[in-house]
Amino acid sequence: MHNFLSLADVTDLDALIQAGLNAKASPFADQHLGKNKTIGLLFFNSSLRTRLSTQKAAQNLGLNVMMMNVGQDSWGLEMEEGVLMNGDKAEHIREAAAVMGRYCNILGIRAFADLKDRATDYREQVMHQFARYAQVPIVNLESATRHPLQSLADCITIEEAKTVARPKVVLTWLPHFKPLPQAVANSFSEWMNARANAGHVEFVITHPEGYDLAPEFKGNARVTHNRAEAFAGADFIYGKNWSSYTHYGQVLTQDSTWAVTMDDMAETNNGKFMHCLPVRRNLKVSDAVLDSPQSLVIEQAANREWSAQAVLREILKNPR
Ligand code: AN0
Ligand code: CP
Fold first, then answer.
1. Which residue, by CA, sits nearest to atom 4 of ligand 2?
2. pLDDT band at 268 (very low <50, low <70, confident <90, very high)
3. pTM
4. Are 52 and 110 spatial neighbours (Cβ–Cβ below 8 Å)?
5. How far is the CA of 150 from the centre of ligand 2 (A)?
6. pLDDT tens for each residue of 195-221
7. Geometric angle at alpha carbon 197, from 191 and 199, rounded to 5°
8. Which residue lies with its CA nearest to atom 9 of ligand 1?
9. CA of residue 148 to ligand 2 center, whole Å
10. What lines the ligand 1 site, CB under 6 Å?
């Protein structure tokens, strides 16, 4: 593996999930791989889990770690080509990425969607410009349209917690008053479609009208607006809010009946509740669900360390 930008960079998903489980069982087995190498973690946006789990994973592999909040600690970066730089951006990505590529053997980047212009967000300019100019492997720490490290942790968590061979996994939209990116839902759908195609899960998406994911992310998933039908017999309920893709970046409804409660969980097959976190309690999901033994959210977040470690290991093992 060179870059880890999306599922397309993964040649063997089963093996990558297993590598995550191996890292969890034996965190320091590959300490030599990162020795005398450096990873730079660049954040255009806030983070708790991604920042700490990726740092931890890198250290488990013997890597040195440098972190920066881009735009806050460094100069604002211009991403467009051929522009007259007389605005608020003091440095161009061409120089910034090239320079950071000299200091680091791997760069991880978090850059959320702006949710203003769909074509701009779905072009994934920040990831592509870094990949183009840094000359070192790039790891997606949540981009405009994807969060693959989260999806890998989700796959690991489902693999560990499943009680049937082919569990029913349901992605359900949750209410929120703020527009959030589609990235987590897009990626989860992309990865679960791959798991479904390989016969490992049954995958269903449920959301209110107007919240369809982009066709390339929805893939072959079954979509229903009938939430009760989706929840019936589910083994995993994966909650996430996202803003509309069709009416781009808009909040079309805040219908509180889409928040997950214990009554909803009672309709499942003693299902587990998953969420990538951060989560707003009682807005998206009740205290009772999050505090019940059915909640996997802490284990899921803990598995972010092992998903990051599996990916960094794969990159370190296969230098181009
Ligand atoms: C972000 C999102 O929805 O993409 C990050 C989730 C990991 N969440 C918020 O902005 C609350
Ligand atoms: N799930 C996740 O990526 O969390 P952070 O935004 O805190 O990194």
1. 49
2. very high
3. 0.98
4. no
5. 8
6. 999 999 999 999 999 999 999 999 999
7. 110
8. 180
9. 12
10. 142, 180-181, 183-184, 276, 278
Per the listing, tokens 């509180």 go with 256
CB 309 within 8 A of CB 23: yes
- Tell me the CA–centroid distance for residue 216 and ligand 1, in Å: 21
* Pocket of ligand 2, beta carbon within 6 A: 47-51, 142, 150, 276-278
Q: Which residue has the tokens 């195609």?
A: 197
CA 187, CA 204: separation in Å to the nearest integer? Answer: 14
Concatenating the DSSP letter of every residue in 22-88 gives HHHH-TTTTGGGGTT-EEEEEESS--SHHHHHHHHHHHHTT-EEEEEETTTTS--EE-SSS----SS
CA quadruple 215, 156, 47, 9: dihedral sign? negative
Q: Which residues pair with 281 in a beta bridge?
A: 285
Q: Which domains does the chain have, with CATH numbers?
A: 7-146+304-317 (3.40.50.1370), 148-301 (3.40.50.1370)
Looking at every residue in the chain, the average pLDDT score rounds to 98
Find the 278 Cα to ligand 1 centroid distance in Å: 7
User: Which residue has the least CA distance to atom 3 on ligand 2?
Assistant: 50
CA within 13 Å, CB half, 251: 11
Which amino acid type is present at position 195? R
- Write out pLDDT tens, residues 44-76: 999 999 999 999 999 999 999 999 999 889 999
| Exposure letters 239-268 (e unless 16+ CB within 10 A, then b) | bbbbbbbeebbeeebeeeebbbeeebbebb
